[in-house]
From TrEMBL:
Keywords: Repeat, WD repeat. It comes from Aphanomyces astaci (Crayfish plague agent). This is Uncharacterized protein. PANTHER family: MRNA EXPORT FACTOR AND BUB3 (PTHR10971). InterPro entries: WD40/YVTN_repeat-like_dom_sf (IPR015943), WD40_repeat_dom_sf (IPR036322). The keyword Repeat applies.
Amino acid sequence: MDTTDAPQVIEHITKSVNYTPYDARWIPCSARFVSMGIHPRATGAINVFALQQGELKVVHELEKQHGVKCGTFGASSLDARHLAVGDYAGIMSIYDFEKPEIPVYSAQAHKSIINCIDGCGGLNIGYGAPELATGGRDGNSFNDDERCLAAGYDNGDVKLFDLRTNTMRWETNVQNGVVGVQFDRKDIEMNKLLVTTLESKFRMYDMRTFHPAKGYAFMSEKAHKSTVWQGRFLPQNRDLFMTGGGNGGFNLYK
C-alpha cells in the first residue's frame, strides 16, 4: 500500500526520563507541561518541562513518597493553575507550582492506587462549582454541562452517573476490561463518549442517540493489535481523536 500521500504525524521533540511516565498534562495558557510517574525505587515523579527554542527544559523536578498515577487541571482556575494528582497510596493531592514542595491540599481518597482523576468547573469551561472525581481501579471522565460522570470497570461495565440526583442513568458492558473513557468536550451537552479496552478494541458512543432497549448507539473498532491504553480528543476539533496502544503505536482518527 502506498502511504506517501497519507497524512503524517511528525515527532517534534523526544526527551528521555529516569522514571516511568504515566500521565502528562499541558499547563493551561503556557508553553509548559507536567509529566507524572514512578521511579524504579517506587517513589513518585512530578516534572515540569518548558518548550524553549525547539528543546525541552526542566523547570521543576519533584520526587514524592509514592508513585504518581494521574493528574488534572480540570478543577483549577486559570489564575491558580493548581494540579490535582492521584498516587499509588490512594492519596489525592493538589499542588501549586509557585511552591511545589508541599501540596496545598491532600486527602486519603482511596485505600489503594488512584487510577484516574478528572475535574470540572475550572479553566473557565462550563459553569458550576469546581469538583474533582477520583477512580480506584476504574476509569472516569466528566461532562461539566450535565454533571455526569462516566466510569469504566475491569469487568467491562461502563456506567453513567448523574451527580445532581446521585443516580445511575445508564449502564452497559463492552465485553472487555475498560482502561479509559473520555467525553469529547466538557463545555457542551453530551455528544460522544470514547471507551478504550483490552484486546485491541475501542468503542465510540453517540450520547445523543438513545434507544430505550438497546441504549446509546455506538461503533466498535480494532486497533494496535494490543490493549488500547489511551484515547484523547483534540481540544481544537472534537472530530479528531488519537489512541495509544500497547504496541507503542499511535492512531489518529476522524
